[in-house]
Design brief:
This protein is mainly α. It has one domain: Four Helix Bundle (Hemerythrin (Met), subunit A) (Up-down Bundle), CATH 1.20.120. The chain is built from four helices and two strands. A two-stranded antiparallel sheet has the order 1-2.
Length: about 150
């Protein structure tokens, strides 16, 4: 799919690159700084769901872009790396979003429930953040392939 001649992937990937790390950092703040939880809970849930949508849209549009183009040689290896990391990112973001929505919905719970939610949210946020950076880096290597700096 294209919009004004540009592949959809080239457009939506920017939302994923910005919103996913922002959501993950918000999740870490929610999990680690208890006094911020009341303020962060709903913005975190909304941001996590929007980031999830952007990651899945970027993933699916990337699959479509790959099917439409033939890559060979060193570029094919970069595309394969990017695709592998994106596959992990979409599932990590899905888990993170579920944890964020659960944390927001069960915000008033005390004791072990709150601790388990905070730990799961923090772990999912870290994995999501790491794979957002790794996937974005691999995508940038593809975008800048062959350009001399």
């Amino acid at each position: 799919m294209e919009i004004n001649g540009l592949p959809l992937h080239a457009l939506v990937v920017h939302a994923a690159v910005v919103l996913t790390p922002l959501a993950a950092l918000s999740g870490l703040a929610y999990a680690v700084v208890p006094r911020w939880r009341d303020w962060l809970r709903w913005p975190l849930a909304v941001l996590a769901v929007v980031a999830l949508g952007s990651v899945w849209t970027a993933y699916l549009s990337g699959e479509q872009l790959e099917r439409a183009n033939q890559y060979g040689g060193e570029l094919a290896a970069l595309v394969e790396t990017h695709e592998g990391r994106a596959n992990i990112l979409r599932w990590a973001t899905t888990a993170f979003s579920a944890a964020a929505v659960a944390a927001a919905g069960l915000h008033r719970r005390e004791g072990p429930v709150r601790v388990v939610l905070a730990v799961v949210l923090a772990l999912a946020a870290v994995v999501t953040l790491v794979y957002a950076v790794l996937t974005g880096d691999a995508g940038a290597q593809i975008a800048w392939f062959g350009v001399q700096g």
